[in-house]
Write a structure and sequence with these properties.
Length: about 170
C-alpha cells in the first residue's frame, strides 16, 4: 500500500511538472543596446514590413527602453527555444526605443501605443504594415510565462494559406 501511495505521489508530481507554466526570467546579463539609441525606427519598421511582405510574416513592434527590466525579460523570452522558433517562422521584430518617454513618440502614436500605461508595449502589423493590434499587456512581463507569450504569438501569427482545390468543369 505504501509503495502504491508513493508511486501515485510521484506520478502526480511528474504530471504537475509537465503542465507547470514556465515563468519569464530576466537575462543573465542585460543588453545595453537592446534598444539602440541611434536607431532609425521608421526605417527599421519600413524594412521589416518589406521583408514581412516577401516572407508572408507579420511585424512585431516592441516599444521600450534599455532602462526597462520588463523589456529585457520579454526579450529574454523571445530567445527561449519554444518562443524563438515561433517568432522566426511568423514575425519580423523591431525594437522601438522610447528613450525616457521622449523618443519615437510619433511612431508610438501612429500605432496606438499608450506609453503612459508602460512598456514594453507591442503593436502587431500585417505584412502590408497595417496595425492589427496594439497592447500594453507585456508591461508586467516579470509576472508572465512562456506559455502566455506563445499564446499571444499563436493568436497573432499570419494565417496559414490553405491550398485551393480546382474544380473540374
Amino acid at each position: 500500500m505504501r509503495k502504491t501511495l508513493l508511486f501515485l505521489c510521484l506520478i502526480t508530481t511528474l504530471a504537475h511538472a509537465q503542465w507547470a507554466k514556465t515563468p519569464l526570467k530576466p537575462p543573465a546579463h542585460l543588453n545595453p543596446n537592446l534598444y539602440p539609441a541611434n536607431a532609425d525606427a521608421k526605417r527599421e519598421i519600413a524594412e521589416a514590413i518589406a521583408a514581412a511582405d516577401k516572407e508572408n510574416k507579420r511585424v512585431l513592434l516592441v516599444f521600450g527602453g534599455n532602462w526597462c527590466l520588463d523589456c529585457h525579460i520579454l526579450d529574454n523570452a523571445f530567445h527561449q527555444p519554444r518562443v524563438l522558433s515561433l517568432l522566426k517562422q511568423n514575425f519580423k521584430v523591431v525594437h522601438v526605443d522610447i528613450g525616457e518617454y521622449d523618443k519615437n513618440l510619433d511612431v508610438a502614436k501612429k500605432y496606438h501605443i499608450p506609453l503612459e500605461k508602460g512598456v514594453p508595449s507591442i503593436a502587431v502589423l500585417n505584412r502590408r504594415g497595417e496595425r492589427l493590434y496594439s497592447s500594453t499587456e507585456f508591461e508586467k512581463a516579470r509576472g508572465m510565462t512562456e506559455e502566455d507569450v506563445i499564446a499571444f504569438l499563436d493568436l497573432w501569427k499570419p494565417p496559414t494559406s490553405k491550398p485551393t482545390i480546382a474544380h473540374a468543369k
